[in-house]
Amino acid sequence: MTDYEIPRPTSGDVVDLILDDHRLFEALLRDLRDSTADREAARAALSAVLIAHGEAEEEKVYTQLKSKRAITAHEAEHGEEEHAEGNEALLALLECKGTDTQKFDDAVEDLATALNHHIGEEEQTILNPAREDVSEQVRQDLGAAWTARRNELLDEDAGSITNVRKIVARAHKEGLLPADDEDEE
Asked: I want to staple 41 with a disulfide (CB 3.0 to 4.6 A). Which of 2, 17, 112, 151 is the partner?
């Protein structure tokens, strides 16, 4: 099995750091679509970095950008809802038994759809205001806080299927995702 090297920066402008992860997500999605790639390793790497990225963003970045009035509470909540949708799609991908089935390919595309939508919106409605309305020093401070939390979550195996299940269940409970019985209606 190939191990993907997940970058572990410790400082930088939070906007640039988040954008770097977005490009990493896109590269890992390409590998998940490639039948000659080590899809199992790509799936594990994407799960780890996606969960660590999103959880650290919600804890360290969104709250600070709200307090600096760079984004509204609605924009932060919408970002959290989109993280929840992506995490739910990630869970479906993690639950696929193999990587060479139509179910796996469909789960990759569902995750790619959710992730690409979120990346586009976040880059326009959250990262652009952060660039324009937040000082470089604050972006550096946020970068340090975000990378520290992201790296801590990577060390804690945040992308494990058990943890992703907990995160998705919490999102349902908090109303970020519809209740399970609403999905079937």
From this structure: 2
Question: Which has the higher per-residue pLDDT, 69 or 16?
Answer: 16
* Better-predicted residue by pLDDT, 3 or 71: 71
- CA-nearest of 37, 49, 157, 40 to 104 is 40
Distance, in Å, from the CA atom of 16 to the CA atom of 22, rounded to the nearest integer, reads 10
* Model confidence band, residue 3 (pLDDT cutoffs 50, 70, 90): confident
Alpha helices in 57-160 (DSSP H): 63-67, 73-94, 102-122, 128-133, 136-155
Tell me phi and psi for residue 108, to 5 degrees: -60, -45
Say how far apart CA 133 and CA 65 lie, in whole Å: 9
pLDDT digits (tens, 9 = 90+) for 128-180: 999 999 999 999 999 999 999 999 999 999 999 999 999 999 999 999 998 76
Q: How many whole angstroms separate alpha carbon 147 and alpha carbon 103?
A: 34
What's the chain's average pLDDT? Answer: 94
